[in-house]
Amino acid sequence: MKFEILYMAFEALISNKLRTFLSMLGVIIGVSTVIVVVGIGSGAQKKVDDQYKNLNVTTILAMGNRGKDSSSSSKISEEDVAYVLENASFVATGAAIVEGSLSVAYGSTSSSLPAIGTDPGYLDIANLELSAGRSFTEDELTGKAKVAIIGYSSLETFWGDETTDPESVLGEYLTVANKKVEIIGVLEENGTSSSMLNYDGSIFVPFTTAEKTLLGSNARLMLNFLAKDAESVSVAMVEIEALLRKNHKLKDGKENDFRLMDAGSMVESASATATTMAILLTSVATIVLIVSGIGIMNVMFVTVSERTKEIGIIKAVGGEQKDILSQFLLEAVILSGIGGIIGVVIGETIIPFLNSLEDWYVVASVTGVAIAFSFSALVGIFFGFYPALQASRLDPVDALRGE
Amino acid sequence: MPKDLLIKLEGVKKSYFLANGEEIPVLKGIDLEVKKGEFVALMGESGGGKSTLLNIIGCLHPLSAGKYFLEGRDIGVLRDDSALAFIRNKKMGFVFQSFNLLSRLSALKNVSLPAVYAGITKKEREAKAEKLLAGVNLGDRILHKPTELSGGQQQRVAIARALMNDPEIILADEPTGALDSQSGEEIMKIFCDFKKRNKTVIMVTHTPSAAKYADRIIFLRDGKVISHDYKLNSTK
Question: ipTM of the predicted structure?
């Protein structure tokens, strides 16, 4: 009997192809859309996570207060680093860098890259690893040597392919601000590509070379400190602020002539943006689910009178209520289940396609699949089954009228 | 109760209730006896309660008051779904004016349907359905869907379905109402054959040409029986 009912359910679905297709379509669209939308949300979150995963949360940045209070004679300088390191007790290490933008050319390809002038210690502070070559030497630093370390994405920029063997570009010469600069190292992919910290796309040169030879007046000085540990970041910030004020001889009540930022709060604000986006996308997904639910409901209700009559016939020939309900429940389960599976397949097919597009980053998430599948399945089962439940409670005569 | 008495109704009443709670009495106390092997026609004006009476006998409707004995057993009190389904499945075969076939199923599957709920295996029931369809001259139409059959053919499929579980009674509600006279006569002949096997037919009809096949005619008017044993000048 159980098998017979399963067979009847399949037969009903197969013989009513249009209805089956339309109600399945609701489930399919609901499931696939939600999977994609949730995937976009998780993608955004993961992108933020990736972007900052190599960022040391103990990093504290100090930079000049450009534009504001320009009359101030005292600005942040390399000496500030030494002064802070000497006097602070919560700061582990620090380095000065100069930032700017340089036009870099290799062969016929040229590009404007963010440039960072630094000393060898900075690579450690910024958590940067070399995939090939070496860092600067002290001699190169003092001698303003024309050498450079390039970021990961420069491989693609100048050699057309980011899988280019980094070893093969060592010893090549780039034209940087009309001067020949030798590549001595290539960085591993770091993942940071925010406007604040675009390590992957940057070119690194010795501090002195950058300041005097390459950047000149375009240089912007930035001080990088690392707090002793994550807990002491806020204390270290207070300490650095006080020391910088002292070193800059700022009187009480006078505004800082520098800005301080810590990596932790940068990550937090980026995370908050991603969370906002996730909430937005969740709302979109919810609307999609409701709309597809209404679609499923409509198709089911349109056929209620036909199915009610069918239930009347089955009752008249001696079908019991439980047989009828089992059949309709099975129908709804099969329909929603198959629709759900097709929806998952479509959703999971769309995701790699979206990822192949530029600037799209979508992560297939199990949560998305689970939410989408269970919601649509529930809607499908409910609207498939509920009218049948109502109809099966009617007297056979009333059901036969198809009311 | 005599042994050959199949159906006995005592003071059966049935009312419908409107949405505002107003009671519409349809059957106002029916006393009725039908013997095994009888062919009875129910006639009377529209709204007189013929179909309601037939549906009550067929357990498609609960009665509001009174007693209903089937083979000596009081089944008017039954409200249990499985028990009623069992009676409809094993004892009754229904034939409706509008055929009430499942349009998505073939003639063969429509005829087998009652046997599905009687727990008969597929092989067994389809063999029997084939035989029944051949018996109503549709042996070459078993895989046709209802929409591919004429009205008369559809009604013969419906009768084959009614016969599937070897019922005691065929309950027919204007079985010839949607058919031309020749198709109608074919249906009546099948009913007569059924009666010859000591089975019972109760048929609601408007048309004297169908009623003349019955052993007797019960006339209903305004929810009451006004004649139990009316006979047309039968030519059968």
Answer: 0.91
